[in-house]
Specification:
This protein starts with 6 loop residues before the first strand and ends with a helix. The chain has a single domain, classed as Aldolase class I (TIM Barrel), CATH 3.20.20. α2 runs parallel beside α12, α6 packs across α8 and α8 packs across α9. The protein is of the alpha/beta class and about 250 residues long. β7, α11 and β8 form a beta-alpha-beta unit. Bound molecules: phosphoenolpyruvate. Phosphoenolpyruvate binds next to β8.
Amino acid sequence: MPARKKLLLGNWKMNHTIAEASAFCDSIKDTKELAKERGIQIGVCPSFLSLQTVKRKAKGIVVGAQDVSAFESGAYTGQVSIPMLQELGITWALVGHSERREYNGESNEVCNAKVKALVSHGMTAVYCCGESEEIYEKGETNAWVENQIRTGLKDLTKDDMKNVVIAYEPIWAIGTGKVATPEIAENVIGYIRTVIKSMFGKGVANRIRILYGGSVKPGNIHEIMLKPDIDGALVGGASLKADSFRELVANL
Ligand code: PEP
């Protein structure tokens, strides 16, 4: 089985002004060295406004957008296109974060259009999925997430899948302090891998990186990352401060 490099990706959401993002970049030099020593890929997803600054200052880390339009250009007020991101050298974007699904009504079909647009431009899509507390309580997590995966990644080729990372984020664990147990996360992520296998074959299933997200902190990241199917973490709150981000890398 090919080794999958661990990935720690911070999702800053609507936090950090350009000045704050810039200060973060000034304080992560040793974190970058630590990540390199430990063979971990690290990155952050700042607001659109901070992308240029972070890309310029934080050399050698992944810098991703938190969203992107599926359209090239046109009458889409407030949206940002792939060519606009590419002009800044940005090659990664999150797609379908649960907050965008909830507050912006993004469906699996819309996410599919965004993932397809990204990979067709050679960019990497971090496709987010995850169930609500209600679905979890009903024991319907696997069916829910399977539908998100099958629809969101519909019509992609095996080759396209080289540029896809999946993030499993149970909504009930995002920003709530209620982290999924490593066993729950591993079970769902293992299931996602079987869905990917049935869609794209064993090679893609073994190669694709699947992250866990939801109240990951320096104190719990290690036990979650011990699980064999979990290839890293998408982290909100604990990725905002440079010290905490460093501790996540140290403990991963
Ligand atoms: C997220 O926003 O993707 C996330 C997992 O947030 P938090 O780590 O704060 O729960």
